[in-house]
Hints:
The structure holds 2 protein chains of 2 kinds. Helix content of chain A is about 65%, strand content about 0%. Chain A is an all-alpha fold. Chain B is elongated and about 75 Å long.
Amino acid sequence: MYVEAPSNLMADDSRLAETELVERCLNGDLGAFEDLYRQHSTRLYNLAFRMVGNAADAEDLLQDIFLTVYRKLESFRGASALGTWLYRLGMNVCLDRLRSKAARQDQATDTLDERLSGAQISGSLAGVSRIDLERAIASLPEGSRAAFLLHDVEGFDHTEVGQLLGVAEGTSKSQVHKARLRIREYLHQPAPKEARPTLVKPAAPATTAAAKQQK
Amino acid sequence: MTCDRFHELVRDWLDGDIDATSRAALEAHAATCDACRAVMTDLRNIHQTASTLERHAPPPRVWARLEQQLAAEPRFREAAARRADSRTRPSPWSWRSPILALAAGLLIMIGGSLYLLHRWTQGPVNTPFVAGGNPTGNNPSNAPGPALVESIDSELQQAAAHYEKAIAGLEQVANASDSPLDPDVMAALHRNLGVIDKAITESRAALVSQPTSRVAQQSLFDAFRRKVALLQDTIALMNELRKGDQAGAARVASGLNKS
């Protein structure tokens, strides 16, 4: 799995390869930076895509993320896996963009104090389609959306999600669970789902499960 | 077990962080409580489906744009120059034609203008977009409106002119080589440029008649952005062809057909 491993468990040769790649990038090796981009851009693009809800903004964000990566690469000390460092940086860029947009539009970004017991929902769903789930994720407040994406979609554990988002592990657990309950509530709503915000799908799909197998 | 306790434990159950005793109690409660059983079933389905969501590769133009931005980063340029000197090899960008480099630079500039326009179109509703010198929004710093639109239009025209020259030059070179440009790709490129230019013209006309229309504002912004994206895809295509990477060129070309 693509997560930060304790330094004593991470293969030395992987860590060495990452350090060398970073060194080559810092030495102005465009090919090395392209390698870095090819290795991590798809995961970060999908994260950005699901955070902002459209392909055009996700492309801008991905570009910003990697430019920021280059500018901050010197500060990468190898204390965590490069992928984790990139994810943390990428998520920060996404959240900064969303908060800046929300501030301009004077929007509340999160309301996590609601009671979400699901007590008013009767019966269970016949099933959960990916497209409905994508719409439900897009409807989440940004905090629980970020936690849900990192945990349930990308497969990080709560300790890692806490590190990536700069929150306590317990907060990650709480955010992810609230996200699941909100999604359930969304999926039980009777209104036509076509009327709700949808994600525009870019080309070339591959499943997260397939991507995980490549790791 | 109470339903409240069930809700506390079902989270740990989903996360796989539950001991055998609690798990047995949870399952026993679910067997007798329809509402809690429904919660358990739904949350498990949501959790399982989430791990199978599709992944999408970013379009090639993102790397093309990033490459250009890196080339403009002073620190990267210096490091690349030092590296080239030490290896007595040409700079990574030396193979580019001056026209293409100029066009790429213009696109970076347009990107900045588009960002301003995007911020502006996200501003207060009912802000006149075309009529008058300045919009009447609450935020004066968000008021570049018509001047910015004119500026982007002008920059786009310059960039497009450079692209036309670069494309024509590339076509000549490619046609004389063993791997000529696919006529269908070039046709798709020209066709898409035509469609986008038409959209820009129509959006501008709509704004003249409805200066406060948020839909018209957004349409113009989207058309500008699509044109920049298409030109950036063209850079990516040219780069792949110059590198002799036919597979990469085919990948970019398939994106052009979807623009």
